[in-house]
Amino acid sequence: MSLRSDFTAFLNGNGELFSFSLRFFRHGLNPPFEFAEFIKQCYVIGYKSLPLIGLTAFIMGIVLTMQLRPSMADYGVESQLPAIVAIAVVREVGPVITALIFAGKIGSSIGAELGSMKVTEQIDAMEVSGTNPFKYLVVTRVLACTLMLPVLVMLGDAISLYGAYLGVNIHTNTSFNLFWTQVFDNLVFGDVLPAFIKSFFFGFAVGIIGCYKGYNSSRGTEGVGLSANSAVVVSSVMIFIIDLLAVQVTNIFDY
Amino acid sequence: MAKRLVNNVRLGAFVMAGLLFLVLLLYMIGRNRSLFGSNYILKARFENVQGLVPGNNVRYSGIQSGTVKTIEIVNDTSIEVSMLIDTKMEDIIRKDAIVSIGSDGLVGNKVVNIIPGEIHDDLAKEGDVLVSKNPIDTESILKTLSKTNNDVAEIVSGLKVTVERINNSTALWSILSEESLPEDLRQSAANIRKATSRAGLMADDLHVIVSDLKSGKGSAGILLRDTSFANNLNQAVLKMRQLSTNADKLSLQMTTLISGIQNDLNSGKGAASTILKDTSVVNKLNTSLDNIQRGTDGFNQNMEALKKSFLLRGYFKRQEKKRASSNP
Asked: What is the tens place of the pLDDT at every residue in A159-172?
């Protein structure tokens, strides 16, 4: 395969993903809605991910604090540690780490689940039985991902900051009250809102790529593994690309 | 079905927790930005705001009390800073409060400091422009420092000359090297000490005297403080004055009397003039007195004879006894 055909395949994939997204919006915005299935997916995607996300966020908070301390101490601004950790967590580390873990856990599971349904022709069977498989399988999952990731990010931020509080207290004795005062004194709307908004896009990207890869898998059980793998890889890369775009947009609005 | 309900409850709690944290975060930030709660605007003008930006903290005597809302350029030399101040500070910040720009730590954010004024002016109202103190920039500090350095250099050169002259002066050194000088000084000091102690004693005595005077003790005290004495004195003076007028009259009468007598004497009238002027009278008086002398001598002899005669002896004896009993 030549470079040219690679590039063509890449563009083809992009085009298909885009048309898949449009299909999602077309189906998602039109009734009937699969509400019960949506709630179930929210539970599986959101609630069930919380322990994993919570653990990683907690560790991230402690580690970030401990890693920053020596440099901060060098500049004699150790007292600003809560502030800088809070900004780092809320602006960047919280959303991106949460989204990456989320992509690893949910993107792969969606890709594998839909892929196996596809290769075992369950989707076709669903279509024959009169249920709209796209509405039932894809819209609910993508919507659940889009709405649950921001919630996970917020909880992850909270847990990270608690971890940071413990991290600060390893060396110094900072009261909980002082820590939160310093955190909130240094946070602005421009830190929280863009991070919150971009986490919707992260969630959407993870959901739509997982569904696209699974929905379009082929070549039997081998294809299931491949779609699960590529769902995680592509959505992870996509998260970084969206992050890059988000920071540009944020700077345009001068936050 | 029951499991699904439990799952839904869990999901609801999960979503609520996430949203609650978001709301808390936004609320806390908003509160720090003074977006919630009531506040009012105070203004101040500066020549240079040194990188102050909207959202920086405003502190009143070090207490967080608001944020910077806007920074506007009024003209080429003044910049107006509007500050959102908490309403609870409305009863505290006065019109004479001084606004300055400082920084939060050495490299921290800029902050606006409001310092209470000296005089207790009226309370500042919405939109008032407070007095501002322009921040000290390092350039002006350096300028002042270089001027100070120049002055110090001049002073030092002057001092150098003075010290050289002192070193070259023989008189001063001879005074300094004089061995007896300390002893003399010491004695002088001792003398001064004695004199002062005496002066102290004197002052004590004076104090006693003065306090006596005040309380009316002693003759001088009576003289100065006793009012009855003054009355008496007054009366005495009055009486003396009366006496002197009487004496005047008396002396007048005396002069008239004396002048009358003088006239009588000169003209030979009256007994006095006879006594004083007639010499024959004097001779007669002398002989008369001699005769009386002789007469009394004869009477004494007669009396002795009478005492011894038997007729009258008894009477005299009774007389003597009576005298002896009355004078034991």
From this structure: 999 999 998 888 87
pLDDT in the model for residue B270: 64
Would you call B25 and A192 a contact, using CB atoms and an 8 Å cutoff? yes
Looking at chain A, which residue has its C-alpha nearest residue B22?
A154
- 3-state SS, chain A, equals CCHHHHHHHHHHHHHHHHHHHHHHHHHHCCCCCCHHHHHHHHHHHCHHHHHHHHHHHHHHHHHHHHHHHHHHHHCCCHHHHHHHHHHHHHHHHHHHHHHHHHHHHHHHHHHHHHHHHHHCCHHHHHHHCCCCHHHHHHHHHHHHHHHHHHHHHHHHHHHHHHHHHHHHHHHCCCCHHHHHHHHHHHCCHHHHHHHHHHHHHHHHHHHHHHHHHHHCCCCHHHHHHHHHHHHHHHHHHHHHHHHHHHHHHHHHCCC
- Answer whether residue B82 shows pLDDT above 80: yes
Closest residue in B to A48 (Cα–Cα): B11
The domain ranges of chain A are: 34-254
Domain parsing of chain B, residue ranges: 1-30, 37-139
pTM of the full predicted structure?
0.58
pLDDT tens-digit series, residues B118-166: 777 788 888 888 888 776 666 778 888 899 999 999 999 999 999 988 8
Q: CA nearest A181 in B: which residue?
A: B28
CB contact under 8 A, A39 and B33: no
Q: Which of B1, B3, B14 to mutate to test the interface with A (most CBs of A within 10 A)?
A: B14
Residue A221, Cβ neighbours under 10 Å: how many? 12
Q: What are the tens digits of pLDDT across the range B222-251?
A: 777 777 877 888 888 899 999 989 988 998
Chain A nearest C-alpha distance from B38 (Å):
19
Average pLDDT of the residues of chain A? 87
Of A46, A77, A157, the CB nearest to B11: A46
Which residue from A minimizes the CA distance to B13?
A47
How wide is the angle at C-alpha B302 spanned by C-alphas B301 and B308, nearest 5°?
95
Q: How confident is the model at residue B268 (pLDDT cuts 50, 70, 90)?
A: low
Pairwise CB contact (< 8 Å): A42 & B11:
yes
Task: Tell me which residue has tokens 């930005």.
Answer: B33
Contact A155 B17 (CB under 8 A): yes
Count of CB atoms within 10 A of residue A210's CB? 32
Enumerate the residues of chain B whose CB falls inside 8 A of the CB of residue A196: 22
Task: Choose among A43, A154, A180: nearest Cβ to B22.
Answer: A154
Record: contact B25-A152, CB cut-off 8 A: no
Structure tokens at B189: 């000091």
